[in-house]
Amino acid sequence: MSQMNPLCMHEDPASVATGAAARRLFRDPASPAFLQTTGMAPGFMQASPIILPAELALDFATFCQRNPKPCPLVGTGNRGEPTIPTLGHDLDLRTDLGGYRIWRHGELVDEVTDISDLWRDDFVAFAVGCSYSFEAALMADGIELRHITQDVCVPMYMTDIPLHPAGPFRGHMCVTMRPFAPADAIRAIEITSRFPLTHGTPVHIGDPAQIGIDDLATPLVGDPVEVRNAEICVFWGCGITPQYAMLQARPEIAITHKPGCLLVTDVPSRADALALPGLAA
Amino acid sequence: MSQMNPLCMHEDPASVATGAAARRLFRDPASPAFLQTTGMAPGFMQASPIILPAELALDFATFCQRNPKPCPLVGTGNRGEPTIPTLGHDLDLRTDLGGYRIWRHGELVDEVTDISDLWRDDFVAFAVGCSYSFEAALMADGIELRHITQDVCVPMYMTDIPLHPAGPFRGHMCVTMRPFAPADAIRAIEITSRFPLTHGTPVHIGDPAQIGIDDLATPLVGDPVEVRNAEICVFWGCGITPQYAMLQARPEIAITHKPGCLLVTDVPSRADALALPGLAA
After folding, report:
1. Contact B65 A68 (CB under 8 A)
2. What CATH code would you report for A133-241?
């Protein structure tokens, strides 16, 4: 996510072996700020948190339900409680992320590593599924992911695919793009069909212009990747979609993760996402 | 659902060809009361509606999100609006069901065919996925469904599998049971894996006692079916689960469908349920 944060990778992320270990690391005030979670806690689902005032919570849950491919809801907190019981033990959303973004009326106003002083008893937390889960499954199958090969962040684009609105949440779908040889594209579709709660099958293959993407070289977020001859572009719904819908809703306050600083859960990502709710023992 | 309603079938349901036609039929005051939707509008998704006051809506949506196998949310209405925009055109939840059950404080108080006089501007409507969608896919594959062969309603059981609570909604999972020869059981698991929003893969196979079912002969709802030698019992999460959770929550008022009188939608059921939201043209 180079445009928003040049630090996409960090040293030896896999040495952080579990979701609980990742959260303890981020909770420690002595840890470096804005550590990225890419490659961290292999085998554990990562998710994008979004924290909203309760008055918007039902609309947001409805928005996600109506747009399951870009906005797969994998966790919901109780009103006022800074945890998501189905995603982790001893999970504290006020401290357990590597970085937070604070939005007021749709404008980014701050980036912090702790939101304890901002937490309110009318906050409701949500977690949206992330493509890291299915990327691990693709790589385990031997499929090359170009952005991994090139050591950059996956490119994300805004499309002209309209979303079903709910309350003030509305907009168009954001997608990630990964190029594959045709045989790998087919296999990637087959594999991701098993991850319905982390975006599932692609929303488009082939010509970017058909979904309103004019130029692959200029992603909305992330880095452009090489598309080789005879490769097919494959587009999946992207978990930044609800953040852009949130910007349009312009809530009095919203808190999201800083790009790359995802919530690392205790849920095994190797499982079909529908293993949810099921924490690792 | 013989214990609750002896009329499980009705004449020539497939002559009602579409979701829209089914809803027009139920909307007509001259139609017979409590017509069942089994076999009606083949190829269109049916769903279980549940209508609650807004003060409980976020808790109910959260409950469904946390328990996706028995409670797959396939539609959510806007506050006060008696429709679900992603499930049908010209869909009026006040009139378009064959029968409704009215619950007050968790007690069944009435069964009616029209709720226009009960509708309130703080009601929120939900629709939960139904196994009819995957049953059609199983039959299309040539798999025998015993309750269809025996011309009875699928047996449903209460288990000891605990649900993740949300607000006042809590309880244990209800399941349906279908017996198969081993090869068909395997194929049924394979096929239903493609229907994550209509219960997906089974939650259990084999010994009923392992999930707290003492006696297959006495289902909670529906009719017992024959289990032949060398057959394996296959158990799926059941859409009556949220209704039982609702009974425990004892809301001031709740409205559900009368068993067998489901909401017939315009969404193709032959598609992977994740085709949602996508109405037939």
Report:
1. no
2. 3.30.2040.10
Tens-digit pLDDT profile for residues B154-211: 999 999 999 999 999 999 999 999 999 999 999 999 999 888 778 888 999 999 999 9
Q: Pick from A58, A66, A196: which is nearest to B196 by CB?
A: A196
The answer to whether the peptide bond before residue A277 is cis (omega within 30 degrees of 0) is yes
> What pLDDT score was predicted for residue B270?
63
CB pairs under 8 A between A and B: 75
Instruction: Tell me whether residues B67 and A277 touch, CB distance under 8 A.
Output: yes
Interface residues of chain B, partner chain A, Cβ below 8 Å: 54, 57-58, 61-62, 65-69, 73, 75-76, 78-79, 85-86, 124, 164, 166-167, 193-194, 196-197, 200-201, 272, 274, 276-277
pLDDT digits (tens, 9 = 90+) for A90-136: 999 999 999 999 999 999 999 999 999 999 999 999 999 988 878 88
Q: How far is CA B278 from CA A52, A173, A189, B221, B273, in A?
A: 28, 15, 19, 32, 10
Cβ–Cβ below 8 Å for A58 and B58: yes
Helix A182-192 / helix A132-140 crossing angle, nearest 10 deg: 130
* Highest CATH level, class, for B13-131+242-275: alpha beta
CATH superfamily of domain region A13-130+243-275: PSTPO5379-like (3.40.1640.10)
> Rounded to whole angstroms, how far apart are CA atoms A223 and B228?
59
Q: Which of A58, A69, A197 sits opposite B57 (nearest CB)?
A: A58
State which residues of chain A have pLDDT below 50: 1-10, 273-275, 277, 280-281
Test the A interface: residue of B55, B274, B276 with most A CBs within 10 Å: B274
Judged by CB atoms closer than 8 Å, whether chains meet at B65 and A61 is answered as yes
Considering only the beta carbons, identify the residue of A62, A66, A196 that sits closest to B274: A196
Inspect the interface and report whether the beta carbons of A167 and B78 lie closer than 8 Å. Answer: yes
> What residues of chain B score a pLDDT lower than 50?
1-10, 273, 275, 277, 280-281
Residue B236, φ and ψ in degrees, nearest 5:
-115, 150
Q: Which two tokens stand for residue A3?
A: 């445009």
pLDDT the model gives residue A27: 94
Domain-wise residue ranges, chain A: 13-130+243-275, 133-241
Q: Closest residue of B to A190, CA-based?
A: B194
CA-to-CA distance for B55 and B62, rounded, in angstroms? 13
